[in-house]
Design a protein that fits this description.
Shape: globular
Helix content: 40-55%
Oligomer: single chain
Largest sheet: 2 strands, antiparallel
Distance between the termini: 42 Å
Strand content: under 5%
Length: about 110
């Protein structure tokens, strides 16, 4: 059931991409600043549970949108990310996704 719910939610998120206002790169650069505190550090590891924090620069824009929407809704569970995403508007998410997707793969803002 959870897999079905996740699949349906992902499809709805993809369908809603056209409903987004176009992301703004400059606004995304400002809004994504806090992301670099974890995602911009080479070989950064989360303490508990222990795992490598992914570098998100250059990631697919649609993936970033779906991931942030999932953290915002609570469908994706990670306490820090849930708190970070909960205050984001759809425009914030679009701006951040445009900015991060434009970065070099595996790197953050220059």
């Amino acid at each position: 059931m959870l897999i079905r719910k996740t699949f349906i939610t992902s499809l709805l998120c993809l369908a809603s991409l056209n409903a987004f206002a176009e992301g703004d790169y400059a606004a995304g650069k400002v809004k994504a600043y806090t992301c670099t505190g974890c995602h911009g550090i080479v070989d950064y590891k989360n303490i508990y549970p222990t795992y490598n924090v992914p570098r998100i620069g250059g990631q697919n824009m649609e993936y970033i949108v779906i991931a942030l929407q999932g953290f915002k809704s609570g469908e994706r569970e990670h306490k820090t990310m849930n708190l970070q995403a909960e205050a984001l508007s759809e425009q914030d998410i679009a701006d951040i996704a445009v900015y991060l997707a434009a970065q070099k793969t595996g790197q953050e803002a220059e």
